[in-house]
Write a structure and sequence with these properties.
Blueprint: H1 14-27, H2 31-48, H3 63-74, H4 81-92
């Protein structure tokens, strides 16, 4: 990494902190190295990939949208002929 360094501060969820702690403990890396590597990787992806292929780690939906999603999960639509054809190809391979 770069010779000169700068410190940053960020609030993260307890769950993320626990995952970070488990990872650095099990892989023997320093937190600073992991955070910098992850940030560089993320920033490089944002720079090189089209915005429409970046999937956010969290999706926030309205209460109305959540109800519609739940209804779709509980009552899925029948597959279209195109979907059936696509899935049949997977079975053949």
């Amino acid at each position: 990494m770069a010779g000169s360094q700068s410190q940053i501060s960020a609030y993260i969820s307890e769950a993320t902190k626990e995952r970070l702690e488990r990872y650095v403990e099990s892989h023997g890396v320093k937190k600073g190295h992991l955070v910098e590597t992850a940030l560089l990787h993320h920033l490089q992806a944002l720079h090189e990939l089209p915005a429409d292929v970046i999937i956010p780690p969290r999706v926030i939906v309205s209460e109305r949208s959540a109800a519609r999603i739940l209804d779709r999960v509980r009552h899925p639509r029948e597959p279209t002929p195109a979907m059936k054809k696509l899935f049949a190809k997977d079975d053949e391979e």
